[in-house]
């Protein structure tokens, strides 16, 4: 069938994190790397489950380290947050993502880009105005920029974060709740913030076709999201069996190694060519 054909099992060269799990960096290392523009974005496709059509790209940060090669976000995001450098990193990454979005629009591709937002930057209530100015400068519709926010994000500095999120929504940006179901307060957050998308965490998606509990959780989350007029994205889809289950459960979008790994912007056209073949 068509979906099976679409799932050519093409995946781009692995752009995953550096294998070493305990790299140690200092604030000075990070500041120098920021000044030298060593933080780059890779992009992972989000596709519609029904048709396979590409609808969005999630931007994932990598450190293109001069000696170590590509270093994954787990190795530097926590230090970026604790040192406050995350504000500068976020501004630079948003600039990169918007440049890519503009480039896609110039090629007649209205593909949303999703950027991951740290809880720390949500304490900055100026952020919505700044992001809005950036989109205006490039004549980009704010709704094409999705901001992915993890649930745990919302717990600290709740009042401020909620205010920033409400302002982002008022400016027209799309808000996505990331890793849904892994925090403590899923339900509470949902009725306080107008999210347009709910991302089902990989831990539920993995082998869900073989696990009744996971399947039930996915089904409940999809029903909840649809009742609240939100779209659903399953993350970490690695097998055809998982894909078929998601299709049965009316999940809107899928993301994962089955479809495509995070890749450099220059590899996207080749991925798309193979995917739509
Ligand atoms: P996330 O937002 O949940 O992103 C999904 C992670 O799962 C990514 O890891 C991605 O490469 C990986 N992944 C995608 N599909 C599959 C799959 O099918 N199987 C498996 N096993 N893994 C898959 P990555 O790029 O290492 O990012 C890890 C986390 O770091 C992200 O989790 C996100 O929370 C954070 N992060 C990444 N980029 C940024 C950023 O620019 N800013 C902030 N604040 N956080 C970021
Ligand atoms: Ca994410
Ligand atoms: Ca996620
Ligand atoms: Ca996740």
UniProtKB/TrEMBL annotation:
Keywords: Phosphoprotein. Residues 23-276 form the EAL domain. It comes from the Bacteria. This is EAL domain-containing response regulator. It comes from Endozoicomonas euniceicola. The lineage of its organism: Bacteria, Pseudomonadati, Pseudomonadota, Gammaproteobacteria, Oceanospirillales.
């Amino acid at each position: 069938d068509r979906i099976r054909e679409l799932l050519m099992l093409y995946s781009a060269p692995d752009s995953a994190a550096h294998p070493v799990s305990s790299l140690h960096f200092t604030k000075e290392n990070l500041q120098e790397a920021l000044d030298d523009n060593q933080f780059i974005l890779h992009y992972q496709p989000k596709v519609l489950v029904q048709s396979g059509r590409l609808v969005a790209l999630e931007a994932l940060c990598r450190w293109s380290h001069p000696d170590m090669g590509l270093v994954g976000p787990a190795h530097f995001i926590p230090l970026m947050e604790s040192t406050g450098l995350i504000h500068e990193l976020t501004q630079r990454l948003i600039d990169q993502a918007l440049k890519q979005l503009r480039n896609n629009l110039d090629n007649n591709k209205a593909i949303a880009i999703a950027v991951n937002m740290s809880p720390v930057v949500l304490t900055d209530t100026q952020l919505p105005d700044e992001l809005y100015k950036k989109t205006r400068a490039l004549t980009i519709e704010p709704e094409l920029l999705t901001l992915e926010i993890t649930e745990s994000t919302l717990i600290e500095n709740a009042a401020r974060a909620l205010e920033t999120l409400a302002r982002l929504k008022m400016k027209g940006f799309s808000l996505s709740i990331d890793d849904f179901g892994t925090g403590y307060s899923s339900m509470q957050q949902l009725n306080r913030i107008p999210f347009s998308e709910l991302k089902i965490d990989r831990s539920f998606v993995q082998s869900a076709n073989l696990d009744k509990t996971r399947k039930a959780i996915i089904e409940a989350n999809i029903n909840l999201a649809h009742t609240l007029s939100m779209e659903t994205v399953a993350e970490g889809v690695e097998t055809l069996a998982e894909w078929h289950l998601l299709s049965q459960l009316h999940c809107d979008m899928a993301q994962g190694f089955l479809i495509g790994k995070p890749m450099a912007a220059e590899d996207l056209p080749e991925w798309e060519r193979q995917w739509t073949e």
